[in-house]
Design goal:
The chain is of the alpha/beta class. It has one domain: Rossmann fold, CATH 3.40.50.2020. The chain is 31% helix and 32% strand. The strands form three sheets. Strands 1, 4, 5, 6, 7, 8, 9, 10 and 11 form a nine-stranded mixed sheet that branches. Strand 9, helix 4 and strand 10 form a beta-alpha-beta unit. The termini are far apart. The relative contact order is 0.17. The structure holds 1-O-pyrophosphono-5-O-phosphono-alpha-D-ribofuranose and uracil.
Length: 209
């Protein structure tokens, strides 16, 4: 049974407050997206399988744990997901990184795919898909459908802010995917933006508006 986890850590909530503020400039916005992604990654990796190893310390042999198997791949959804990559790689530097390029058509709100490059050994890895915003859910659903064709061990999805509509759509389309959410907001507006949200995540990360 897949899990849905809404973050309640005080550090995440504090950083989210600054992130949402319309006065927060791109440089600080980028840093916060990365920090929140790192904190969320700590939760999203809590169930990684471990195996026992023996380690020679300066004093003795210690029976200790190491993460088992081929480990992780992160897949940011371009553009805004890119802002989360530094933060998660700070915790898991050996992870592979794939990329999926999708943008929402402004009229239809349907995702349009323009790029996909995934690690060659993705079927041996657990994948964590990254996107700060889960609005209608269309982009996340498409990205995960695409990744599933490559048969990874497991897929998780991490977003900083979700709308109830997007969360419902994603969990219906992909009931096997664990979903980690920084904050669950009130609704979508008539333009498909999350309210209260933080505006356009890609534009705020890259300063394009
Ligand atoms: C944003 C966001 C998600 C998508 C969420 O990307 O980063 O990918 O919208 O909306 P949805 O849940 O309704 O699909 P956008 O399409 O603005 O592209 P960008 O990151 O290139 O700016
Ligand atoms: N994409 C964003 O960047 N922000 C929203 O509120 C919805 C989709």
């Amino acid at each position: 049974m897949a899990k849905i986890m809404i973050m309640d850590h005080p550090l995440i909530q504090h950083k989210l407050t600054i992130l949402r503020n319309v006065e927060t400039a791109s440089a600080q916005f980028r840093a916060l997206v990365s920090e929140i992604a790192m904190l969320m990654c700590y939760e999203a990796t809590r169930d990684l399988p471990l195996e026992e190893v023996e380690t020679q310390t300066p004093l003795a042999i210690a029976k200790t744990k190491t993460i088992a198997g081929k480990k992780l791949a992160f897949v940011p959804i371009l553009r805004a997901g890119l802002g989360m990559v530094d933060g998660v790689l700070a915790l898991v530097p050996s992870a592979r990184v794939g990329h999926i390029g999708l943008y929402r058509d402004h009229e239809t709100l349907m995702p349009v795919e323009y790029y996909c490059k995934l690690p060659a050994d993705i079927e041996e890895r657990e994948v964590i898909v990254l996107d700060p915003m889960l609005a209608t859910g269309g982009s996340a659903i498409d990205a995960i459908t695409q990744i599933k064709t490559r048969k990874p061990q497991k897929i998780k999805f991490m977003c900083i802010i979700a709308a109830p509509e997007g969360l419902e759509a994603l969990k219906t389309a992909h009931p096997d995917v664990d979903i980690f959410v920084g904050a669950l907001d009130e609704c979508l507006n008539e333009h498909g933006y999350i309210v209260p949200g933080l505006g356009d995540a890609g534009d705020r990360i890259f300063g394009t508006k």
